[in-house]
Specification:
The longest helix is centred in the first third of the chain and has 26 residues. The chain is built from ten helices and five strands. The protein has 209 residues and is mainly α. The chain folds into two domains: 101 residues, no CATH class; 78 residues, no CATH class. Helix content is 62%, strand content 5%. α1 packs across α2, α1 packs across α3 and α7 runs antiparallel to α8. The chain is elongated, with a radius of gyration of 24 Å.
Length: 209
Amino acid sequence: MKSEIGTIVRNYAPLDVEKWADISESDKVFMMEKLQEKFIIDFTQDHVKKAIEGKMAARYRDHRNKCHKHFKKYPTIALAKQNPYKHVSDQKQWDWLCDRFASEKFQARHTGQALGQIELFKLMHWTSQNGWINQEAEASYGKMLELQKQPVPEGGQALKEAEICVQVLGSRSGYIKGLGHGPRPPSSSSKSTHKSHREIELENELKAT
């Protein structure tokens, strides 16, 4: 039965969710019905249903872990997306998984520490086996490190990683090239608005003294 549960989960459990608990009840019922086609199981008994669902959840975690190991074989997200794991037939779901595996949130949880956007860029374009995917990626990473190390002028502010990435890599709406969707630096208009508000506050303080 364990083998059959694994096959059913691989074939029918959606991958574009964060975890097993997020899978809809209708999808879980459908998988249980598939299992009933091979085995006589009384799902009206709560302890039976919970036991089988627990086994399905375990097989689902195993499947996701194998997907992640496969994803890590490729130096870039683009290459990973072009080479889905053998037990994933839905390209859209595989693309979703690849984006999740490369996300800062997943990396922070997986490694135990938050990953900055500059190091995320390296993670996506460099491997210990093959090095950088191309000279352009290596040069871009070097430029970002240089900007990060630049001394901050007196009274100024250090550039945020998102600002450095946009400066070196460029961007389009909601998307930083080479990194995908992520936090964007504040626009110049929002910065000037914030500055003017602060100037008004200072003027009011001076008037009050």
